[in-house]
């Protein structure tokens, strides 16, 4: 479980293709890796991965083909910047919202408009997820807990403050980029429950 509060960014320094998975090695600030253990969970662009190896400044993950297909991790190259968050511990503050680290789909950045104090970003997403996206709702974008601005058909907007841009790789985003999306699980559960109840009453 995660909170959607990005703790640091890391640089992809090595990518090794294996038979049925890809191994990613990241260069990370030493303080982020303190008390880390093999088998620990870390969200990479919002996708929960398991630590298989680490040093004082690097951490390595094995990423299976299905994860590469469903997320933007398959598009990473050497030099790419990724968002990181370590898993939630008992007693930790939840500054964002509960995030599982299981990506539902990727979205595509359509437009980015920046002013001195605000960046507006429109993201297109698959039609199947329309019931779960609404104004003021929670959404995780590349692992960052954010609030949906407006919704128009299969697109939603985000309004990003300078601090969010400073802390996340959304500062480097460009139109056409794919971003990992995880919809709020509570919202999905409520919507699907209501749909089942209404469907049963209609029979």
From TrEMBL:
InterPro entries: ATP_synth_asu-like_sf, Lumazine-bd, Lumazine-bd_dom, Riboflavin_synthase-like_b-brl. Pathway: Cofactor biosynthesis; riboflavin biosynthesis; riboflavin from 2-hydroxy-3-oxobutyl phosphate and 5-amino-6-(D-ribitylamino)uracil: step 2/2. It comes from the Bacteria. It holds the Pfam family Lum_binding. Lumazine-binding repeats lie at residues 1-97, 98-194. The keyword Repeat applies. Its EC number is 2.5.1.9. Gene3D superfamilies: 2.40.30.20. Keywords: Repeat, Riboflavin biosynthesis, Transferase. Residues 1-97, 98-194 form the Lumazine-binding domain. One of its GO terms (molecular function) is riboflavin synthase activity. GO terms for biological process: riboflavin biosynthetic process. It catalyses: 2 6,7-dimethyl-8-(1-D-ribityl)lumazine + H(+) = 5-amino-6-(D-ribitylamino)uracil + riboflavin. Catalyzes the dismutation of two molecules of 6,7-dimethyl-8-ribityllumazine, resulting in the formation of riboflavin and 5-amino-6-(D-ribitylamino)uracil. This is Riboflavin synthase.
